[in-house]
Amino acid sequence: MIEQLYPCDHCGGRPTLGRSQRVVEQDGYPAFDFTAFGRFSGPPKVGDVLARPLSAPMTEKLVCIYCSGCGMSTPWEPISDDENTARDRVAKIWNQRVNRPKVTGGDMRDLIEKELGAVDAQLVIDMLARNDTDWAERGPIFAMLAQRIVDATVVTLDSWPIDPVLKDAARYRKLLQLARWVEIDGERAVQFPKIPSPREHQDMPFEDCIALAVDTMPDRNRW
Predict the structure, then answer these.
(1) Backbone phi and psi for residue 120, each to the nearest 5 degrees, phi listed first
(2) pLDDT values of the chain reduced to their tens digit, one per residue, 223 residues
């Protein structure tokens, strides 16, 4: 979903997922307040995700989308039991703040917004280069494609670098050396090692998260 977010309409900055927590309304509050964790500690702050002491008031987890440049933010949304649903809600609010044509389900622009990303830039350039007719009809479609590439490139510039092929090849060779043969129910199979991935990487694009996990592994034996 991160690639489907538009750049900030105020400064053109990159939208970023923010997390926090706030005190839940409860009956029977004590007369005193907790300085750092109480009802009067101010609005939620991005990055305030550490567990509170047992003696502190109960909190609920929150999510928002904010601009990494100017700080403009959507309202905080409670996560409840489904974080992905909460993310979808703030993403919809974020994209409505930008002056773009309204997307209706099933139309061409809806498909482009969902399926096209920064890595498809060469495909779009190739389509433009090979088109030699029907510019009046295809021009608006090319414009949609180009705008989507620009949006996706701005949004994922810091969080999804397009690594050179050699880096990906090095990761592949590292995995190959760590693989081993196993027999399961009489069938021979290749087994790759379990690679830990820190929880703080869960909001990153899938490919970036996998690449970082492999990069943190010890270098392969070059003998």
Answers:
(1) -95, 10
(2) 676 787 887 777 788 889 888 887 666 555 445 556 666 666 788 888 888 777 777 788 999 999 888 888 999 999 988 888 899 899 989 888 766 555 554 556 665 666 676 667 777 777 777 777 778 877 887 788 787 777 776 666 554 455 566 778 888 888 888 888 899 888 899 988 888 888 877 777 777 888 888 888 887 665 4
Residues in a beta bridge with 182: 189
Kindly state the tokens that stand for 194: 């379990």
Shared domain check, 73 and 47? yes
CB burial of residue 220 (10 Å; 0-12, 13-18, 19+)? middle
* Structural domain for 138, as ranges: 108-155
What lies within 8 Å, CB to CB, of 23 at 6+ separation is 37, 38, 39, 41, 57, 58, 59
Task: Show the beta-strand stretches assigned E in 1-119.
Answer: 15-23, 59-67, 77-78
Our separate counts of H helices and E strands in the chain read 6, 5
Is the pTM higher than 0.70? The answer reads no
Q: Is residue 35 part of a domain?
A: yes
147, 162 contact by CB (below 8 A)? no
Total domain count, the chain: 3
Which among 182, 175, 176 has a CA at the least distance from the CA of 217? 175
Contact 104, 114 (CB under 8 A): no
The Cβ of residue 67 has, within 10 Å, a number of other Cβ atoms equal to: 20
